[in-house]
Design brief:
Shape: globular
Low-confidence stretches: 1-5
CATH class: Alpha Beta
Number of strands: 6
Bound molecules: flavin mononucleotide
CATH architecture: 3-Layer(aba) Sandwich
Number of helices: 7
Helix content: 25-40%
Strand content: 15-25%
CATH topology: Rossmann fold
Strand order of the largest sheet: 3-2-1-4-5-6
Length: 206
């Protein structure tokens, strides 16, 4: 039976362990302030470790995290955070109806797991589900340089319908003043793919 049309949109945001955590955290901030979004988040142990090492941040302390990100008001319809070992969470099933997911940042470990359908944790399983249901899966992988194994895993995901959006440096919007502009450019690109309006970067020609 077809699902009834929904006003809200279920989106999964996964954070894994690589050194582009500000992109994932900014996405969290923007999605939580977007009306109509029902946000589901899942963080890997790798993400927690990078957050601790690089930012002195405990990702699982959600109220502290909100404080650090300056999120005073949540305008999203709902926010459900899931543990990575909770493979019984609703986002583990295709019937729950998630059609958009972004993994930002995406470590090479998580990329490899998704590329090979491992589904060993909730993030990997949710990504697998979005691919099999022909939804939109956006990966923001960060590693440099890339080995042939990394590149081939990206090709596998792209062949399966995923979108690979690396946080590649760009200078056309003259971001000299801050790394925030670089982060916002990448976050804006992810939101473009998900058809969510934003003003995070100035479009070419405007
Ligand atoms: C401080 C720190 C920075 C890291 N940066 C990266 C990175 O930029 N890219 C990457 O692929 N892995 C990076 N790693 C390694 C991954 O976090 C590690 O392979 C981890 O097992 C990935 O697990 P996950 O994919 O489940 O998060 C980093 C690890 C640490 C501790």
């Amino acid at each position: 039976m077809a699902q009834p049309a929904r006003e809200t949109e279920r989106i999964v945001l996964g954070l894994s362990g690589s050194s582009a955590l500000p992109v994932g955290l900014r996405l969290l901030e923007v999605l939580l302030s977007t009306p109509g979004v029902e946000l589901h988040t899942v963080f890997t142990e790798g993400a927690r470790q990078v957050a601790r090492n690089e930012f002195g941040l405990e990702l699982d302390d959600l109220s502290r995290l909100r404080e650090r990100l300056g999120i005073s008001e949540i305008r999203a319809v709902a926010w459900q955070h899931h543990r990575e070992d909770d493979l019984g969470a609703p986002i583990s099933s295709g019937s729950f109806g998630v059609r958009k997911m972004v993994v930002a940042p995406c470590s090479m470990g998580t990329l490899a797991a998704i590329a090979n359908g491992m589904s060993d944790n909730l993030l990997e399983r949710a990504a697998d589900v979005v691919l099999k249901e022909r939804g939109l899966l956006v990966l923001v992988p960060r590693e440099a340089p890339l080995s042939l194994i990394h590149l081939e895993n990206m090709v596998r995901v792209a062949r399966a319908g995923g979108v690979i959006l690396p946080p590649v440096l760009t200078f056309y919007h003259q971001p000299e003043e801050s790394s925030r502009a670089m982060v916002d450019f990448i976050v804006g690109k992810v939101l473009d793919l998900m058809a969510i309006e934003h003003q995070l970067y100035r479009r070419w020609g405007y």
